[in-house]
Write a structure and sequence with these properties.
Length: 433
């Protein structure tokens, strides 16, 4: 280590919903030199890679370099002149920027949606319907003796989750995996399933009826359960329910296998009801495996600002919320929006063909540090500082715990919060507010 370098400890990783807060980062003040304790994904995010160096504005079909003032002016003009503006993303930035974004979309009467609408949105809808028997990851680490991953593969998606919070983690009342049972329910054998004490393969789209059968067995009416449900024998289901009833402290980590398969939010309502009923026999809880590092934070900020957690429409002069109508994919598919503000996301890579086709017909504004396929559609590109590395702010872990991400190096790029503050000021000026 150079004499001029410094080591920053207890760094919060701004990659996934685990928000690991024990990293060590070496920096020379302007760039990251080394990252310790992070997984490969987190290390790659913090170390960074080739990025967009300056704002870009499309003219005559080509992107040219511009100043931040020019780019913010052009973006503000586009949004101010739109009759039906849409914004999407917001999961990989901090709460302070999201709050500015809510005020901006309210000012222009637009639709504001997050990446939750294409991942754990069904979980959010289920929680609204039947509540959430949750706890902190610390409680899982310290107390859980039965850990279940259902439709999730943390080895690939949340690499340090098991070591930090769940199966391998050593807590006050647990010595680690020696004191725990790990069960994995999935349609195929994953890397997480390879580590499990027991892997249960289920048929695709059968989650709802499996939960229903388990609830029936739990209520003492196993006689009406068929000999096989979703690829699991009745005898095996009875054994699983009995194991859950005997747990000292159990947890189900639900993944996208529940939210993006048949029945969607109804799967979550059913598993929440199952957990509620198991709590008559044992302590049990449920935590969704949230993906982007601050997707939970978007739900928090949007809910306290508007009353709703995502897919909010300000066009009526008051907040309208109707997922399936006011979600980004649907607004694009119906070709309703006449401008599109993309923040810390890449819809061109993963939205349906119809949605992406409409993007090429309308002005697209992108706020992101890095080039991605959405940049190819963008009319205005505004590179921002990487939150949690080059800018500070607040993020919410997958269990709803807020943590402070820090600024580790000095860069020339403004933060998302600064960009949207200036954009909001300019929009108000253009609209004569």
């Amino acid at each position: 280590m150079s004499a001029e370098n410094r080591i920053i400890t207890d760094v919060v990783c701004p990659f996934c919903g685990s928000l690991c807060d024990d990293l060590e980062v070496e920096t020379d003040g302007t760039k990251i030199v080394k990252v310790k304790k992070a997984c490969k994904l987190g290390k790659s995010k913090i170390m960074g890679h080739e990025r967009i160096e300056s704002p870009l504005i499309r003219e005559d079909g080509k992107l040219r370099e511009a100043t931040y003032e020019e780019a913010i002016e052009r973006a503000s003009q586009i949004l101010s002149n739109s009759k039906r503006p849409l914004s999407y993303g917001w999961a990989s930035t901090v709460c302070e920027a999201i709050e500015k974004g809510v005020h901006l979309l309210e000012e222009i009467g637009g639709v504001m949606d997050s990446t939750a609408s294409v991942c754990h949105g069904p979980t959010v809808l289920a929680v609204q319907g039947v509540g959430a028997p949750g706890c902190t990851l610390g409680e899982v680490k310290n107390r859980a003796d039965l850990v279940i991953f259902w439709g999730s593969n943390p080895v690939h998606a949340h690499p340090r989750h098991q070591a930090r919070y769940s199966y391998n983690a050593k807590g006050f009342f647990s010595g680690g995996k020696e004191d725990r049972t790990l069960m994995v329910f999935d349609v195929r054998k994953t890397k997480t399933a390879d580590k499990a004490d027991e892997y249960v393969q289920i048929e695709p789209g059968s989650d709802y009826k499996i939960f229903s059968a388990m609830r029936t067995i739990l209520s003492g009416n196993e006689d009406v359960v068929p000999s096989e449900v979703g690829g699991i024998s009745k005898e095996k289901l009875i054994e699983i329910v009995d194991r859950m009833k005997k747990a000292k402290f159990g947890v189900i980590f639900g993944g996208l296998g529940l939210t993006q398969s048949r029945c969607r939010y109804k799967n979550l309502e059913n598993v929440i009801s199952l957990v509620d009923e198991i709590n008559e026999h044992a302590k049990f809880t449920l935590i969704p495996m949230r993906g982007h590092y601050n997707i939970a934070g978007f739900g928090q900020v949007c809910a306290w600002e508007t009353g709703y957690p995502f897919a909010v429409d300000f066009s009526r002069g008051y907040v309208w919320y109707n997922p399936g109508e006011t979600t980004a994919v649907d607004v694009l598919n119906r070709k309703e929006c006449d401008s599109f503000l993309v923040v810390a996301a890449d819809p061109a890579s993963n939205f349906p063909k119809g949605s992406v086709e409409h993007m090429k017909d309308i002005p697209v504004i992108q706020v992101d540090p890095y080039h991605n396929p959405t940049t190819e559609f963008a009319d205005v590109v505004i590179p921002a500082a990487v939150a949690g590395v080059e800018a500070e702010g607040t993020a919410y872990r997958m269990d709803g715990i807020p943590l402070r991400v820090r600024k580790l190096v000095d860069v020339k790029y403004p933060s998302d919060e600064e960009i949207f503050d200036k954009m909001l000021t300019k929009v108000k000026e253009l609209k004569g507010a």
